[in-house]
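Quick one:
INPUT:
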């Protein structure tokens, strides 16, 4: 009888993991959203066009480099807290071929230097855009 209860408990707990909601970014409250007015078309000036494969490759690599919801350790230094934020990184991406995109993350200029220069905190990813998987990581 105990084995049956244990087995049912394990099955029910693992089934809960199947019902997790996918990540959705936070949205502004309706009142704040209603105040924003979109311009007619993109404003003139410099634009950044990001092809779909590059955009998806950057997202895949970023999810591995700094997983969503990950938090720095409780006793983290201010620099470690800063480096745990996606907004602290610049991204460089280049298609090597039709199926491989290189994605590199490095701290943006002036970010996270409260205790000195942060070295070796970036990474470069080789992303297979045919199979949507990470081929290799260089840190």
């Amino acid at each position: 009888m105990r084995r049956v209860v244990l087995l049912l408990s394990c099955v029910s707990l693992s089934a809960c993991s199947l019902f997790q909601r996918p990540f959705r970014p936070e949205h502004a409250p309706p009142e704040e959203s209603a105040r924003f007015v979109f311009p007619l078309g993109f404003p003139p000036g410099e634009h950044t066009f990001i092809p779909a494969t590059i955009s998806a490759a950057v997202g895949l690599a970023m999810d591995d480099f700094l997983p969503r919801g990950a938090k720095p350790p409780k006793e983290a230094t201010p620099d470690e807290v800063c480096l745990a934020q996606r907004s602290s990184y610049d991204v460089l991406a280049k298609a090597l071929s039709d199926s491989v995109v290189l994605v590199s993350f490095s701290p943006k200029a002036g970010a996270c230097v409260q205790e000195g220069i942060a070295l070796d905190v970036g990474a470069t990813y080789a992303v297979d855009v045919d199979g949507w998987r990470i081929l290799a990581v260089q840190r």
